């Protein structure tokens, strides 16, 4: 059984195979989970931002995106221990760890809906990184707030620039990219791939993850050069 190290001790958890197309988001439960999570982390003095598709939906649809599957949140790596120290309170409210990639990503689930925690650490060149994904440091460290689902949530101060950096200038036009009608064989392959990750010894996992991360870093740099004309 995989283990998540935390300041208050290791948490052994049952891993859930999560991959693009695993499920379509239940907006009602997702909103409930996000509000509850915020209440808990507020008590611990932890700030986070809506990120990726969650920010896109909040700004464009004023709702979760119909074809999204989870909630994405960005944290600074400096707050990681404080977030993990809040896990006992999260568990009391029904949240459970369901994924830990042994680097910068942790996922929690409640009532069948999951939330990704992206912990961004400094990368240099005015950037931060999480599991190979690069964003401008200013997008992670500087926030404003918007109203979403009756609550105020942090978002990047330059949220429109963030969305351009992620999705290009056409971010206002919805694009369905997840496939929720995959065949059984495709689903089995994805589930097996995710479960094999948990079974790998950490040195082998880190070796393979490092190779994949370097490729992703290069793709992200190309994306930032294309979408923002960012010099790296």
Describe the structure.
With about 230 residues, the protein is α+β, with helices and mostly antiparallel strands. It is built from eight helices and eleven strands. It has helices spanning about 25-45, 50-60, 80-85, 85-90, 135-140, 160-165, 185-200, 200-230; strands at about 5, 10, 50, 70-75, 95-100, 105-110, 115-125, 125-130, 135, 145-150, 150-155. The strands form three sheets. Strands 3, 4, 5, 6, 7, 8 and 9 form a seven-stranded mixed sheet that branches. A two-stranded antiparallel sheet has the order 1-2. The protein has a two-stranded antiparallel sheet with strand order 10-11. A hairpin with a 6-residue loop joins strand 1 (about 5) and strand 2. Helix 6 packs across helix 8. The longest helix has 27 residues, at about 200-230. The chain is globular. The N and C termini lie far apart (about 40 Å).
């Amino acid at each position: 059984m995989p283990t998540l190290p935390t300041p208050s001790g290791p948490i052994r958890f049952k891993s859930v195979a999560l991959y693009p197309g695993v499920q379509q988001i239940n907006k009602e439960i997702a909103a409930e989970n996000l509000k509850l999570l915020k209440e808990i982390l507020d008590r611990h003095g932890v700030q986070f931002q809506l990120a990726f598709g969650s920010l896109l939906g909040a700004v464009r649809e004023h709702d979760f995106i119909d074809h999204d599957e989870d909630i994405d949140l960005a944290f600074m790596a400096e707050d990681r221990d404080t977030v993990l120290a809040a896990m006992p309170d999260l568990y009391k409210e029904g949240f459970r760890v369901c994924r830990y990639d042994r680097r910068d990503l942790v996922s929690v689930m409640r009532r069948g809906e999951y939330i990704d925690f992206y912990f961004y650490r400094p990368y240099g060149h005015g950037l931060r990184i999480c599991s190979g994904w690069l964003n401008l440091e200013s997008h992670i460290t500087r926030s404003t707030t918007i109203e979403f689902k009756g609550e105020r949530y942090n978002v990047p101060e330059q949220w429109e620039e963030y969305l351009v950096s992620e999705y290009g200038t056409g971010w206002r036009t919805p694009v369905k990219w997840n496939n929720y009608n995959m065949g059984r064989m495709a689903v089995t392959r994805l589930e097996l791939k995710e479960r094999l990750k948990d079974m790998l010894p950490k040195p082998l996992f880190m070796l393979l993850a490092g190779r994949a991360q370097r490729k992703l870093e290069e793709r992200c740099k190309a994306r930032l050069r294309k979408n923002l004309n960012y010099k790296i």
